[in-house]
Amino acid sequence: MTLRFRSALSALGGKTFLTLMTAWTLVAAGILGLILYSSAREDRVIALNRATDSYRKDLVYRRWAAQRGGVYVPADEKTPPNPYLKDHAQRDVTTSTGKQLTLVNPAYLTRMVHEMSDENSGHTSHITSLKPIRPENAADLWEQKALQAFEQGARDYSEVLQENGRPVLRYMGAFLVEPGCLGCHAEQGYKVGDVRGGISVTVPVGLPAAAGLTHKGVSILVVLAFWTMGSLGIFLWVRRLASASRKQEDLIQDLELSSLRFRLLFESSPAPMLINASGRLLLANAAAARMLEADRPEDLIGLEVPEIISPDYRAAVTERIRASARDGMPTPPVQEAFLTRTGREVWVEVQTVPIGLPGGRATLVFALDLSQQRRDEEERRKLEAEVQHSQRLDSLGSLAGGIAHDMNNVLAAVMGMASLLQLKHESDPPLAKSLLTIEHAATRGRDLVKGLTDFARKGLHEPAVMDLNALVRKELDLLIRTSRQRFVFEVQLEKELPPIMGEATTLGSAFMNLCVNAFDAMPRGGTLWIRTFRQEGRVLLQIQDTGEGIPPEILPRVTEPFFTTKAAGRGTGLGLAMVYGTAKAHGGTLDIQSEVGEGTCITLGFPALLPDSAAKQMILPADLSPKHSLRILLVDDDDLIRSTLPPMLEQLGHLVEVASSGLEALRRLGGGLEADLVILDHHMPGLSGAETLPRVLQLRPEARIIVATGFLDTDLKILLADFPAVVTLPKPFGVAELERVLRLAAGRE
Q1: What are the phi and psi torsion angles at 327 (to 5°)?
Q2: How confident is the model at residue 389, as a pLDDT?
Q3: For 270, which DSSP code?
Q4: Which positions ≥6 away from 340 have C-beta within 8 Å?
Q5: Element (H, E) at 139
Q6: pTM of the prediction?
Q7: d(CA 85, CA 97)
Q8: Cis before 732 (ω within 30)
Q9: Beta-bridge mates of residue 538
Q10: What phi, psi does 596 have (nearest 5°)?
Q11: What's the rounded Cα separation, in Å, for the pair 721 and 232?
Q12: Mean pLDDT of the chain
């Protein structure tokens, strides 16, 4: 422990030293940078002033010479006659004493002065032009750049460059053509006021300091010395600080060890832990803060214990705190509800242990969060209830499916013969009316069987795109006529409601069922609200009454099969169960809200079809009627079907062969029987329709197939998914339905 403490202390001292040294170095570097920047700027200003002074001086004596047309000096080796003035009549003159003089023009004078000053002043000057007469006055590259700037309107130009490893300032000032200049330069095309050239001055930037050091070097040495003294002071201060900290190590070591052991155990515990004394919280670990939805454990310190306890358990907790303080004994685990800082209840299992602290006795509380466990149990109960409900519906559906085949065969015979006889006796109205009554009765029987089998199905037999508003208006006509004005109808149908995919007969029955239930709940009359609207991609149908309402204890059971609260003989207990099955088959939802004395509101929700999808679903094929009579093989094990269906097919102009089983049909096809279309019963002993279908297609790949069934189970749906050209014919059916399916099958590719 001592070594770790010393290492941490040493690391802290080293970190402090590095931090201070870094900051001090940055300060010194900043001072040095500021000094160097100011020095460089000052050196440049000084150099520029020297250059401009030289330029102005040259310009003054050049102007003086130009105004006087030049000066005469004795001709000798240093000042020979100017060869460029040979055409000048007065270039060479002789004084009265016989001394030979030669004319020095302003440019010649300026160049000679520059040669003399370059040797003594420390800077160089050069008179130049873009059109020089004397080659020595030709401009170098930098001077050309400056002269070109003059042509753009500038009158001076300067720049700091490096020459021979040292910075120099190059400056050029323009000189203009004056009247005295035209004597030599008029023939070059100049006129008074033109820029004829410039005077270039090169001046070194910065002057040497004492002892051969530059001003920059002196600045660096001064700042370096200043930085060294500051660094030494920082080192001594940090060293003294570390020494003082080490002397305090022995005084705090025992306290830190004791506190560390307890806090490591307390804070690292994954279980929520609290410490309270006299009913007030002293400490809480991170797990407890998370459980109680506090931002930090410190936010819980100082709270009264009852503040974190649900009101239903505060009395028991207060008594337990008193008993623990009185007896000093641990308490057994107990389940109770804590109250989080956001007001949410959290179920926990709590156990307390008395502990001793320097300030007196306290209680250590261990808490196990049971929230997830209780949520899992609640979810499991809900799932079990749904599974049981689904199983009861499936059982009822399976029972109904077992009798649906035979019942539908009977109804198919009745409906088929009734519709066939109507076609043959259209000229006998009384008989046709009686036959129509028989057909309607068979149709009602078919709908009853279909409603029962809906409990077992998971989808729709014949889904179609439909307008829910149109369905509601159609059913409302019948409801309003039969309600005997006992009820007030409030109808609110949303305009331009999206279409849905469904079965109109099934949904109509479900709607009528809900409305009849609402009437039964309002024996003295009342108001029935019927609404349609859209919500989040779904189409909703809502039926709300002002009836007696449903007690909350039986509300979860109202969709169970055979559950009813009506008197004997007034209800089967299948109404809401069938509505529930219809909603599930349509991929929808059923929501029931009710309050005793206020009424009931039931909402059916269905997936809305997108406009493009609805348009595609509503596209009908062109004329699907066959162009000639078909050779049809009917395969059904029921004598009633084999005796009633062939006359119907023959009435429609087709040739019919009959087989009583799938095996017989395969034998006859294998023996050479030609068939354009095969009608297969699905539920047959031996080979079923599903088993016969692929074998028929092996023998007659070009044949069209119709599967006739009164109950479309899952196995058949899976099979038909592999044979999209196969058409289903729901039993029972009449001649019109049979003709429609024949046309559809004949048109399939």
Answers
A1: -95, -25
A2: 60
A3: S
A4: 291, 292, 293, 294, 308, 346
A5: none
A6: 0.39
A7: 24
A8: yes
A9: 535, 607
A10: -60, 130
A11: 90
A12: 79
